[in-house]
Design goal:
By secondary structure, the chain is mainly alpha-helical. It is built from four helices and no strands.
Length: about 80
């Protein structure tokens, strides 16, 4: 499941976000995925992904994920969290 999640974030998110354990986000407003659990519980991402993530800056595309995609994305993001 984490490989599917990795593929999804590589395709949909990696243009701006750091999605791995050591890479750097190319967009200054895009947090590294490995630090997301420090900001809020990862389970809080489920609703945002299901409803379509949208933010206050125009560079972030709106994307609605299916329940299966959400599970895979959360599993992948959990796998790269810093302690």
């Amino acid at each position: 499941m984490t490989e599917r999640g990795k593929a999804l974030v590589e395709f949909n998110c990696a243009r701006c976000h750091a999605i791995g354990k050591t890479d750097k986000s190319s967009h200054p407003d895009a947090p590294a995925f490995r630090t997301l659990s420090k900001r809020y519980p990862l389970t809080d991402l489920e609703e945002a992904l299901a409803e379509g993530i949208s933010t206050g800056h125009p560079d972030m595309p709106e994307w609605v994920a299916s329940p299966e995609q959400i599970d895979a994305i959360i599993a992948y993001i959990a796998s790269v969290q810093q302690p």
